[in-house]
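[job 4471] stage=fold_predict status=RUNNING
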Amino acid sequence: MIKMKKNLILWRHAHAEIGNNDFNRHIDERGKKESKIMAEFILSNSSPDLILSSPATRAQETLFAFNSLYKAPKANIDKNLYHAEPNEILKSIERNSSDENIILVMGHNPGIHELSLSLTNNNQELMVKFSTCSACFISFDNDNWFNIYNNKCFLDKFIQPKDLNRDNL
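[job 4471] inference complete, writing structure tokens
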């Protein structure tokens, strides 16, 4: 039996305005530019079967650029992804996934960054600031999403908006 390759995209929300109500902060002009350029990049590399997202306003607004270009077969807002720790992100993947090969998780730091580091054995490429709207592409060979920590995961790409086009940010 051949194992299918699974792909996980961990995407941090775009740059947001400063505010006292953290949950309801909107992305700012820089964030709108970041989300557009990153949405285009992600879609040029992948077509997620499932999107899992934090319900926070800035996460939803970051996904707006993505959703205007691509309609994923499944999308779930998971309240547990708001400022989730790595283990909670994995639990969300396990709760919501079935036979998908590509899952995109829209979330927050430090959880997104910490999970990307732990899954890739602290890959040196990730030993930098996981800036707003950055995305990490991770793959592993397996038939399901359970026990992802027990799989050998590979960092396929780590992209920050500034890597794509400095002039637009």
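[job 4471] summary: The chain has five helices and six strands.
[job 4471] exit 0
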